[in-house]
Amino acid sequence: MELTIAAGLASSALLLSNLASILLAASRLKRRHVIAPPVGAQPVSIIIPSRGVEQFTQETLQRAFSLDWPRYELIFCVAHAEDPVVRLIEAAVARHPEVSARLLIGDDRVSANPKLNNCVKGWQAARHDWVILADSNVLMPRDYVQHLMAAWRPDTGLVCSTPIGSRPDGFWAEVECAFLNTLQARWQYAGEALGLGFAQGKSMLWNKPMLDAHGGIQALAAEIAEDAAATKLVNGLGLNVNLVASPFEQPLGQRSFVEIWSRQARWARLRRVTFPLFFTPEILTGAAVPLLLALIAASSAGVSLPTTALCVLAIAYLPECLLALAKGWCLSPRSVTAMIVRDVMLPAIWARAWFGGAVEWRGNAMTIRTRELTDLEEIA
C-alpha cells in the first residue's frame, strides 16, 4: 500500500510539474506578430558562421538580405575557402549590393568550439555596438532584429531565441520538432519565467562594448559550449538572459534517427558538463518516468494498466499539443506519436550523457569529458 501511494504521488507530482512548465512557457510566449523598426534605430552587425550547404541554405541566405532594419551589416564567416557554401554566399552578396555584406574566411583557434572559432574574425570586424550572432540555418523573419531588440531591458546582458522546428519532412523530422518545440523550448521559457534564463546559441544579441569590457568573444571559450559560457558570464555580471517573445524558425526538412540521436546526445553531454545540477533532473522530464510510476501504482492497486497508461499519456500530451496549436508551431496527426518516441529516447540520451566519448558537430569530432576542458579533432 505504501509503495502504491508513493508511486502514485510521485507520478502525479511529475505530471503536475509538466503541466506547470507548459503554463509558464505559454505565459512568456507570444504568437508571431510583425514589429515595425523603431524611429532612430541603431545600426546592427549580424555575424553568421557558416559551414556546408544544407537543404534550406539558399532560403536562409535570402532572408538575411531581406531584413526590415534601416541599417545593418552582414558578416559571413567560413573556416575554409574550399567550403561549398562560399560560392553561395558570394553569389548572394553580389545579388544584393544594397546591403553591406562581407565574407571572411579563416579559423581562429581560441577554443575547442569550432563555431566560436569561426565567429572570432567576424566579431573583430563588426563595426557596430549591437552584434547578433546568428546560426546559418535560422530562418530570419523580416522583423528579426526588432524581436531581438524588443527583448532588451535595462537589466539585460544577452537576448536569445530558441530554435522552433518547422517544415518537417518525414516522421523523424517530426520527432525533432517534438524535441525542439514543446520540450526544449517549453522548458527554456519556463526557466526564464522563474528567473533562470539561459542562453541559446542559435540567435544571440550582444552589446559589443559590454562584452568587450569583459574579455570579448574570447571569453565565451571558458566553456565548450558558447551559450553555457555566455549564461555564466552574464549571470556573473548580475544581468539577465532574456528570450524573444516569438522564437525564430529552423526549417528541418528530412531527418534520420541517427542524426537526431547524435544531435541530442551532443547537446545532453554539453548540458551535463556545463550545468550538471540542472541536467541531473532532466531524467524526470517527458512522460516515461511518470508513466512507469503510474503503472507501478496501478498494478499494486489492481487498476487496469491500459486505462492508466491512456490517462497518463492524455494528461502529458494534450497540453503539449494545445501549446503548439496556440503558438502556431508544427502540429500534425503524427505529433503525439513523435512525442511518445521522443520520450522513449529521453532516458537513453540522459544515460548516454554521463559517459565520455566523441560526438560530432558538423564534421568535427568533439570529445567531451567530465571536466570542462575538451579535445577537438578536425575531420578532413
Topology:
Elements: H1 2-28, E1 44-50, H2 57-64, E2 72-78, H3 85-95, E3 100-105, H4 114-125, E4 130-134, H5 144-150, E5 156-161, E6 163-169, H6 171-193, E7 203-207, H7 208-212, H8 226-236, E8 240-243, E9 248-254, H9 257-274, H10 276-279, H11 288-301, H12 305-327, H13 335-352, E10 358-361, E11 364-368, E12 374-378
Parallel strand pairs: 1-2, 1-4, 2-3, 5-8, 6-9
Antiparallel strand pairs: 4-7, 5-7, 10-11, 11-12
Commentary on this structure:
Helix 1 runs antiparallel to helix 11 and helix 2 packs parallel to helix 3. The protein is elongated and about 70 Å long. The C terminus is likely disordered. It has 2 domains: 120 residues, no CATH class; 209 residues, Spore Coat Polysaccharide Biosynthesis Protein SpsA, Chain A, CATH 3.90.550.10. By secondary structure, it is of the alpha/beta class. It has 13 helices and 12 strands. Helix 3 links the parallel strand 2 and strand 3. The chain has a 7-stranded mixed sheet, sandwiched between helices. Strands 10-11-12 form a 3-stranded antiparallel sheet, with helices on one face.
